[in-house]
Amino acid sequence: MKMATTLQLTTDLSKPIIVVKPSLEFASTPRHCRTSLSLPRFNNIARASSSSSDSSLVSRRHFVSETAALSLTLTTLPLFGSIQPAKSEESALSEWEKVSLPIDPGVVLLDIAFVPEDPKHGFLLGTRQTILETKDGGDTWVPRSIPSAEDEDFNYRFNSISFKGKEGWIVGKPAILLHTSDSGNSWERIPLSSQLPGDMVYIKATGEKSAEMVTDEGAIYITSNRGYNWKAAVQETVSATLNRTVSSGISGASYYTGTFNSVNRSPDGNYVAVSSRGNFYLTWEPGQPFWQPHNRTVARRIQNMGWRADGGLWLLVRGGGLYLSKGTGLTEEFEEVPVQSRGFGILDVGYRSKDEAWAAGGSGILLRTTNGGKTWTRDKAADNIAANLYSVKFIDDSTGFVLGNDGVLLRYLG
């Protein structure tokens, strides 16, 4: 279906749109200690004499006395303060620590970003109208309020945040778009049409006054003047594209519900998105008028897809499978990589470098690779995290976070 011309965000994606920007200010609200105990080794308690052949020289009384002495040592050692009991509520993670957050346990954390001009200053988003702010690199967080959202009595789900220089953007559901030009010290709300095709699920700051915004129906809008108007980068929604191309052999397209399950952008502006049912995926490159659908080459349905640090793709399937594309760029050729997922679904992958990456998923599953994804090992110390881990974000090679439900945030220690 082609989309009719309008000055608002509608299903016609081919024309510019214009919005009016009232100003709105935010009201600012205000290691684990790994203990070890070196115990005496219980070696050769019944020591033989220099004549090893005469075992009768070993005194049973001597054996009993040494055993009793060791037992007394084990019993009395803690009384001298040589060790401190470990905190029972959390066990040490080999590379990560759990961060305490001032939010309700039911909140699902969805995105995180830091200000390039001030690497210690960042924002954390989630459901239930959650926006948190840090000024110490993510060690501590405080809530930020949105007066206009509170007045309208909406319970916003903030999906995505991005910064370029001092400029930042936030999008959420119901439709809300926020912009800052002073590193997040103040924010303004940009009104959007209720006829916007789909919910805004992703935004990327691309330059001075510029950003890309994506909806779950495949609309991509671009602004170059701080959101005063937006231009469509694709000519139709994904549903319209599939209605035209369903005869081209895309499996499952006739059952497509018209929305994305996930969408990820590469550093050079290419997109990959997974259909809501996970039965195929779609790609888009700058300059293309439509999304390009692709058949999945694996038996199980796709959970999520994204970009490796070397420019290739990773692909997650339901049930815990992980696949890597052959080579770099857009392709339909993937090969499976063995992982110790224990049957739990893997939900996201984040690359710290070309060689090191972390994967996270259900029931606190946390996996690591140090060879670009060829082999993975499980961080068993994370097994006791009673949460699903949805997102892995590395800000740089020394700053990373894992976001989950029930307000779980893990910070990378390195």
TrEMBL record:
It comes from the Eukaryota. It holds the Pfam family PSII_BNR. Keywords: Photosynthesis, Photosystem II. Residues 91-412 form the Photosynthesis system II assembly factor Ycf48/Hcf136-like domain. GO terms for biological process: photosystem II assembly. One of its GO terms (cellular component) is chloroplast. InterPro entries: PSII_CF48-like_dom, WD40/YVTN_repeat-like_dom_sf. This is Photosynthesis system II assembly factor Ycf48/Hcf136-like domain-containing protein. It comes from Prunus persica.
